[in-house]
């Protein structure tokens, strides 16, 4: 197994499938009275978060604790030191403390890659800028597999703010690795330059692609990363790219609705859809713990 998980492209189909299979075993443990395994006893996992997070941070913490690791949470928000320097100094400190794994979320794309050159343990990318979020893609793949049975040959439609979405980037890569077909739907201003070279189709017409989807993944409109107007108004955005009840009913009966969270309810998704039987949003969060346990298990198992 690999030492670091920096990008979804670090995983080939065999490695990704192994992680998903292990996650299935980890999930079965959540039903037991004692939810702990001794696997990582004596190992230290540091959560290094330079950017806000609810689900991902709590999920990594729960995953590490269920494997009996010691967990140190380091919230770096508010640091006034220049980014590159503070990251390196912090890395050297973590190294001196003997961290076996560092889970990092950082606003700068590529920060986890730099960190991996400075420390001896494993680095896990928990979201870097607009670049990648590989464990989110793994938990989404896990959710797809548990709901649809098979990922290969399935059609996943990813909708919304693709430009700023590390979730979309990692999902496109992993879904391609696992043999799914992906269509990106977004306003032209929110399609990244170069998306034409990704292993995905691009469409501007949500209503047209929905009847052919096995899963639709709604993305949060990332207002905090938008310096200027990317669309005329929130109302106009919702009308064309939001998922509401009538639009959801265009999906085939078996199709699921996903969202990585946090949601802008009423913007990219209506409460009717988010709270519907097709929605896997809460399930995705639960699956995140099992998937991150599987990732920690395999990555830390490979470094002694
Ligand atoms: C995503 C993230 O932070 O990249 N959320 C998450 O990890 N569950 C998506 C988002 O912020 O929109």
UniProtKB/TrEMBL annotation:
Residues 153-299 form the Aspartate/ornithine carbamoyltransferase Asp/Orn-binding domain. Pathway: Pyrimidine metabolism; UMP biosynthesis via de novo pathway; (S)-dihydroorotate from bicarbonate: step 2/3. Carbamoyl phosphate binds at residues 55-56, 105, 133, 136, 261-262. Keywords: Pyrimidine biosynthesis, Transferase. It catalyses: carbamoyl phosphate + L-aspartate = N-carbamoyl-L-aspartate + phosphate + H(+). L-aspartate binds at residues 83, 166, 220. InterPro entries: Asp/Orn_carbamoyltranf_P-bd, Asp/Orn_carbamoylTrfase, Asp/Orn_carbamoylTrfase_sf, Asp_carbamoyltransf, Asp_carbamoyltransf_Asp/Orn-bd. GO terms for molecular function: amino acid binding; aspartate carbamoyltransferase activity. It is an enzyme of class 2 (transferase). Pfam families: OTCace (PF00185), OTCace_N (PF02729). PROSITE patterns: CARBAMOYLTRANSFERASE (PS00097). GO terms for biological process: 'de novo' pyrimidine nucleobase biosynthetic process; 'de novo' UMP biosynthetic process; amino acid metabolic process. Residues 3-145 form the Aspartate/ornithine carbamoyltransferase carbamoyl-P binding domain. Its EC number is 2.1.3.2. GO terms for cellular component: cytosol. Heterododecamer (2C3:3R2) of six catalytic PyrB chains organized as two trimers (C3), and six regulatory PyrI chains organized as three dimers (R2). HAMAP family: Asp_carb_tr. Catalyzes the condensation of carbamoyl phosphate and aspartate to form carbamoyl aspartate and inorganic phosphate, the committed step in the de novo pyrimidine nucleotide biosynthesis pathway. Belongs to the aspartate/ornithine carbamoyltransferase superfamily. ATCase family. This is Aspartate carbamoyltransferase.
């Amino acid at each position: 197994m690999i030492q670091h998980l920096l990008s979804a492209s670090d995983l080939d189909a065999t490695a990704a499938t192994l992680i998903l299979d292990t996650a299935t075993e980890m999930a079965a443990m959540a039903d037991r009275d004692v939810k702990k395994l001794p696997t990582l006893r004596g190992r230290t996992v540091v959560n290094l978060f330079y950017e806000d997070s609810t689900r991902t941070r709590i999920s990594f913490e729960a995953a590490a604790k269920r494997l009996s690791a010691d967990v140190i949470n380091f919230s770096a928000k508010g640091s006034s030191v220049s980014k590159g320097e503070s990251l390196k100094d912090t890395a050297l400190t973590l190294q001196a403390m003997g961290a076996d794994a560092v889970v990092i979320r950082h606003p700068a794309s590529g920060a986890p890659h730099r960190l991996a050159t400075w420390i001896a343990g494993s680095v896990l990318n928990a979201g870097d800028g607009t670049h990648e979020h590989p464990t989110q893609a793994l938990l989404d793949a896990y959710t797809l597999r548990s709901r649809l049975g098979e990922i290969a040959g399935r059609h996943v439609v990813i909708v919304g703010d693709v430009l700023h979405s590390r979730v979309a980037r990692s999902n496109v890569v992993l879904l391609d690795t696992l043999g799914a077909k992906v269509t990106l739907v977004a306003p032209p201003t929110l399609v990244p330059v170069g998306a034409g070279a990704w292993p995905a189709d691009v469409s501007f017409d949500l209503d047209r692609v929905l009847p052919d989807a096995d899963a639709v993944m709604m993305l949060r409109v990332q207002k905090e990363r938008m310096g200027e107007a990317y669309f005329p108004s929130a109302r106009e955005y919702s009308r064309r790219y939001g998922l509401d009840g009538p639009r959801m009913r265009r999906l085939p009966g078996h199709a699921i609705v996903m969202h990585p969270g946090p949601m802008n309810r009423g913007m990219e998704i209506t409460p009717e859809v988010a709270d519907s039987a097709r929605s896997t949003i809460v399930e995705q969060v639960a699956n995140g713990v099992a998937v991150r346990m599987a990732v920690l298990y395999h990555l830390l198992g490979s470094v002694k």
